[in-house]
Amino acid sequence: MVTVLMTHEVDDLKHWLASPDRGPAFASVGFTVETFVDPTASNRVGIVLEGPSLDELQSMLDSPFAADVMKRDGVHPETIVTYVHQGQGGTR
Fold it and tell me: Which domains can be identified in the chain, with CATH numbers?
């Protein structure tokens, strides 16, 4: 299992929060997703993902499917920053 924090900017916070696509997109590769918002910036958000492997997540994120979901959600891909949980033994 791996836990990942991803932060990024979006066009419209309300639109991004209402997305019906984000959860199913990550679930398609076995990941759960929790959403977070930056209370000091109206377009900065974060997600915590937990799932089987970083490779599976990265493969999905590099796909045309994920690009389409990000576009519909108003994600600014160039602002994505990824952090991998480094607990006891690296990933959990």
Answer: 2-84 (3.30.70.100)
pLDDT values of the chain reduced to their tens digit, one per residue, 92 residues: 999 999 999 999 999 999 999 999 999 999 999 999 999 988 999 999 999 999 999 999 999 999 999 999 999 999 999 999 997 655 44
**Radius of gyration over alpha carbons of the chain, in Å?**
13
Q: What's the pTM value of the predicted model, to 2 decimals?
A: 0.88
Asked if 70 and 64 count as a contact pair (C-beta separation under 8 A), the reply is no
Q: Each residue of 73-91: b (16+ CB within 10 Å) or e?
A: bebeeeeeeeeeeeeeeee
